Amino acid sequence: MPNASENERKIKRKRFISESNDTNITTNTSITTSIAETNWLRVVLNENEVDPTSFNWNNYFQDLTPNYMSDISIITTPTPTTPTTIPFVFKSMNPTTTPNSTSPSSQNFPPSVGGEPSNSNNNSNSHRRHDSCFISSYSSFSTNINSEDLVSKVVEVLGNLLEEMKHNICGTFLNQSKGHLIPASFLREFNKLIKECSFPQQQQSSTNIKPSIIKSVNQLHSIISTQPPTPETELYCHVFNFYRQMTAFLTVVQMFFELVVMDFLCEQREDMNRRRTSIDRFMNIFHEEDNFFQLPRHSSNNSSCSTCSTNSTQSIHNEQNINDTLDAFNWYYRGIVRPQPEFYNDLSMRLRAFSIHFTTLETIESILSMFYTKHFLNVFAKEHQKDHGQFYTPREVMRFMWDRVLIGRGNDGTLIEKLLRVSPSSSNSNHPQPSSSRFSSSSSSWGGVLPEAPRVLDPCMGIGSFLCEFINRLTMAAQQCPNVWNDPKAISHLLQSLATNLWGIEIDAFAFHLCKLNITIHLLPLFKRFRNLSYYGELKLTRLHLFCNDTLNLYLPKLERTWEYDNLQLLRSPQRLKFDYIVTNPPYMIRKTGFISEPDSELFDERVLGKGGMQAYAYFFWFCVERVKEETGEICLISASQWMGLEFADKLRAWLWQKCHLVEFFQFEPFKVWRKIQTDSLIFRLRRRNEPLLSNGMSSGRPSSFIEPPIVFLRYMNRKATLQETLHAYSNFNPNSTQFDKEMHYKITPPHPQTSLPSTTNSFSFTFLMPTSAVSAYLHSITANFPSLCDHSSIKPTWQECNPLIWHRGPNTNPVYALVVRTSWAYSKFGSDVCKRWLRPVFYWNGKNGGKEAEFWQKMGDEMRLEKKESSPAEAYVPFLSYNSSGSTITKGCHEKDKSMYSLIMVDRDAVDKLRKEPGENSEFWHYLKEARKQLQSGMTSREVAYCGTSKCGIDVRTKIIHPINYGYFSKNQPRQRFFIDEDNVCVTNQCIYFTIKPTTRLPPYFFLGLLNSTTIQHFLSHHCKYDQQGRMRLFRENMAKIPYAAPTDTEGINWFIDCTQKMITVRQMLYEGIGLCDEEEKVAGAVVEKLRRGSWQLAGREWQEKESDSYNDETSVVLREEQEGNWVMVKQCRGRGDIAEYSLIPGEISSSIQQDEIGGLTSRLRSAALLNDQRYPNTRTHMMKPFFESLLHSSACLQHAIDQYAYSLYGIDIKFQVALEEELKLEIFEVVIKKYPRWNGPVNQSNSNKSNGTETKGVIPEWGERLLSEVEQAIEGVQHVLRQKRMTILASKR
């Protein structure tokens, strides 16, 4: 230890240690600490505030550690040049201290007990708030490189101990002499687990197991000891293992809690009796319902065990139920572990092996959350997190969110004023001197307003991480304010206000118990400070306002006028209870499929939130907004971002706009916040308006004095950045700065009334708040007055004639996995007559496999129906159907049962009576539909059979343009949209949308097919239809109605453009037919379709190289010739034909023959490809078709280029923005095509009529337009010759 001459900041204090023998033990210690200056302090602190010491609570009590423990409990922060091996649990989360940092004792640190006040100058080291309102802190969530490793070490130790406890619990059950320790509530909970256990469901269904209720421990013992095991005993063993895991988990968690409390309050070398006494004294400050060391007030020992609860969710609303439930898992801890100190000594020694001693609370929350996730959630149900929406928020994100509400943009007041409700200004001379006498109101020197914690709510608190972070910050604020930190009455009042104003709700009983442990631990620093100031002072807290309940219902206990009943009634009445801060991470799941209950209609407005299908987090949005204080209250939430633009939340967005000030949004790409969650994340801040806006955007009351800040939306596009780096970029963003990260995309939107919510499509989308590119801004400026591609409403009277298309969506064929059948199976099952009457071809692909639907189809006898998940066959212009190589939506010239793989059962409500008469209730068809209703629509008991509305399936529409409604996102393998045309009256389901042409539109469908597949429309789709940062899109009517439409004015240009589209259809149909001629059809299809999507044509790889075979050795010879730079080229010599074709052996290498960019050159080679006509081989070898495919792929690429250029001329997009648009979409553009067919750059080849009348020409023929069509026609003629020869070959082989 350094001596006194080395540092002027050494403090000597006295401490009372022993209470049992009333002996005062005084210990002097000298310490050296260094505190880093951090950016967030410069924002938080005013002139009279003190620089705190991050979260290292040991620095608050520097007088409390004896000299002989200084090498263990006190950490001197090293200089950057000094290596350190100190365990992380000792360390602050702030960056390493610089040599010039200043300790708290030199910065107006509170005077020590019995010492002199500090004479440091307040102004010399004070920090002032930054001028910029956008700058916030990042250092508060910086991380240490060793944090994850050492947290993992602790979790590993606890996990090993848990396994040992499981073994011991089993031994206790087998030892009948200890049977009296097992509470009666065990049997109730065990029987409940048997009923709810999902592990052996398949076993139960196959063997009809009906497990009986266990009535005694001896009965259970005899069952699980049965040999050999039976399916029933395996069920009980599985449940018993489940129970042991839960009991051992609670035991280890509470042991860990006690160890942390002992480490924090006591010296390491104090005897166990004194350490245990400190725990009891700490827990005695809590209400009896919060002291989990005491037996529950309502013991369950006399409760009946013969029955079990039918609904665990509905039973959690009663506090007695909670205590009884936990008591069924707590008995081992209470009766065996806690009375024996050796258990704690063992755990302590295991942690000491890693030099771990908890003198700070820095890592407690991380340890608890990791231990809970790894050894509770993940052990029993792999889908538990997904079903419950439980994904615990990373600590740095949680700190960032609290930073935003406390010190973020637009906040007034200091951190002390916001957290303690007192002024931090005071002089050192007037500091109250802490008293060491017995606490009483008369002994306090407090002369001002007592500190009061703000009222905080977490409606889905999990293990309490957000609330614990708030307690951390409150404690820091108290330490910064000498009037609070040095007065026992102020500390006592602060603790009381925390118990009163800290509110939380959690539905899971085990998570709720961990939450209580976590919050209790985080109250230790304030308790320790109070004990040091008034060792004999009395402190008793009111009951914590934490509830194990369902936020969506807030069930009331049966007994009225109890504490819990009254406070839950307050929570149910937002007019009576308002909160200052609500910061949380709502659960993420769909209500109709997730593990959540039906919300209480008294708590939520179904007119805004709907009755089904709403994401669960939307209900929590409502719950929070209704309960936050107007204008001064703050809400900060993290959720997925889909609600910003998708249709399901349109009414919610309108409601939020009327009720709230939207402050700021921070978007995170998928996997950034949670490594295993693909959905992107959005952190956003709201303030409740004093008076809501009316539907016309005007305020409904008197003007508010609150000055609404602009709305800021930030999106950091650096995908390589870590989560910490992303948060750092968000925290330090300043739009007024001339230098900031170019990867930061942002948009600042003026507040109301300068900005109104767009409502032209009734979707009230918030996407207008998101950052847009320069290309998007440019396109919006030049198309602002254009009509829409389609109407936003399905109501015909609202349609506008200038909008050319009508948007449709296929019917919801619920249950889709029963009303869509495999055609061949249906014909064999129902018969030809029934299928011809009731089935029609449908464009469909199987989007799932497994589940109850698969079980249904196995029962029906068609295991292939859901055998595997299929990709969408939709491709641009022409769909690619593996069973149909003709390039159309159905197979033509064949029997009805062979036209399509899938068929739609055309039975709607009105058809049920007809079906009852013919084929009748005894038919296989009726029986099938009846079983489908029972198995897949079990809730629709009013229906006899399954049916759906078929009026929107499109069967009566001769020509329609189809596209999947869920596109996913543009990628390298799928870089473009995939609109295709159907002219065969095929049905569609709600998997797809389709367009039809208005009767008033004088343009054919082919014109719009080409336009919809153009690059220009692709950009509009990406801008208006995507709903997350990943770029996934949904082509809803409201989104498609935002796409502008530029009507063409040049007749010749229209005809040329239609000709391009029709030739594109022909080219792709021939490509698909060629794929069907190859012997490796699946591999060829994958390679060719990928090239087709990307607009490239050069085929390379092993499948395109000639392979030696015995059948061809007599006809061909293969020669390897070495070219320059060591590249080997294979020369194929076809004997008797005189053809020599060269192919590169290097994947990706382009041979000289393929480097010809002239389509005609490729065509001439195709005509001489006599090898394709060999009648001995109907299925052509892959490598023989290479010139065929490359010619058509090149033609397709050139035609797509022509279609894109025409669309550019139609919308008036110049070359500069053409390039920028294609770069933004990350499209591959081939210079060889652009060189031959230059970009459009202004109107050319205008028709004579337009020239004469001086009108602006939209949509013109490029100067190379006719030449391109001529060359494509030559290529088509060449490949048609090949296809004709192959068709003749196939016919000859069949004869």
Automatic annotation (TrEMBL):
InterPro entries: DNA_methylase_N6_adenine_CS, MethylTrfase_TaqI-like_dom, N4_N6_ade-DNA_methylase, SAM-dependent_MTases_sf. Keywords: Methyltransferase, S-adenosyl-L-methionine, Transferase. Its EC number is 2.1.1.72. It comes from the Eukaryota. GO terms for molecular function: nucleic acid binding; site-specific DNA-methyltransferase (adenine-specific) activity. It catalyses: a 2'-deoxyadenosine in DNA + S-adenosyl-L-methionine = an N(6)-methyl-2'-deoxyadenosine in DNA + S-adenosyl-L-homocysteine + H(+). Pfam families: Eco57I. GO terms for biological process: DNA modification; methylation. Residues 501-674 form the Type II methyltransferase M.TaqI-like domain. Residues 88-129, 423-446 are annotated as: Disordered. Residues 94-125, 423-445 have a biased composition (Low complexity). The keyword Transferase applies. PANTHER family: DNA METHYLTRANSFERASE A, DNA METHYLTRANSFERASE YEEA-RELATED. This is site-specific DNA-methyltransferase (adenine-specific).
